[in-house]
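ingest -> validate -> predict -> emit
validate: passed (alphabet ok, no gaps, 434 aa)
predict: started
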Amino acid sequence: MISVRLFTDMRVFRSALLSAVAATAALVFSTPLNAQRPAARPAATAARAAYVPGAVWERRSPAAAGVDSAKLADAIAFAVAREARAPRDMEESHYRSFGREPFGQGIGPFKPRGEPTGVILRGGYVVASWGEPDRVDMTHSVTKSFLSAALGLAYDRRLFTSVRDTVWKSQAPTYALRLTAPSEPGATYGHPMFLDPWGTPHNRSITWDDMLRQTSDWEGTLWGKPEWADRPAQNAAEWTTRARKQPGTAYEYNDVRVNVLALAATNLWRRSLPEVLQEHVMGPIGASRTWRWYGYDNAWITLDGRAVQVVSGGGHWGGGMFINAWDMARFGLLTQRRGVWGEQRILSEEWVTLSLTPTVPQPTYGYMNWFLNTDRKWMPSAPASAFGHVGNGTNLVFVAPEQDLVIVVRWIENNAIDEFLGKVLAAITTGATR
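emit:
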């Protein structure tokens, strides 16, 4: 049973929602608010900082938030009715899709998902929620936006000085974790002892910007997955023989290359990326303690004498970010506010601007995984200034800055998203308000 929470008159809500799908409704009253650069600094503010939630998230009725309650209920009913058709068991779903590709076996954790779920914010306040927003589920490639944030934090702290720097110059030798010594000394003589993702002339020409925009055309294999095996070309004869494209000139969505970037970021930070994210993003924005970021079972390295798992940039082959809808909404609100949380700057304005700058070969993509509505080609029903963090499932954190709106929607058919967003946007009756 889907539970929907709209903060409005019960009679209006139920007549709109129950006419579309079977669901339950509850009237919820407002509750009070309770959480760069080398160091986080207070953000510049006008009269006062925009509202952000603390431990308790303050709620507003649709009417108080300038939203038509009946139209909003209809939009939520639509999202519930258009639940994704793929199996709820994420492992089964994998083997019906990506698992059928070469080297497609799962090597990280999968988790069955829950009900169609969502959260809608206006002005930072909760206007509606439905489904199971407390449930921790895989968020697939929304993970890439958290990986991008980890690189943004590194950039703001000058762990690398320019996005035009070549990546290889910042990388130390990477030693894969070994729990036992070879049973026969000398048996591995002559074999490489270190992982070297940057050993070819082509790979040494790749910059951070190329990796973040998925325009690197990186070549090689990582964690047992060749880059050509992810969404392979129809012509198998070209899988290992085609000429490389100059970095920055061609866009190709590829999870092996994303995982190479995660390894590079781990080397750069010299610590695990979940620790970095918790200290500098998720902790400051008041996220729950329930999110987890996993890598693959074979993606462990020895780093300064410690065993460190290199996380993956999505749920392709398992792993990635496991998170609830509330924490996704907090991250969405952070990006809507351009890296500022209350009076604290978490990501620099420069980094957010780079993330929102269209990629030349793919103008609807910025830094991973910021999907841009350039010329309204990504989501025609949304304004051109809108953007989103997108993952398989479909998982979406949608941000409309002009409308002061953040929408988290999970487990909706991909081809239904634009219509759903159009319905929510049509429900807005007043301008942005704080």
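The chain has two domains: 3-137+325-339+373-426, 144-311.
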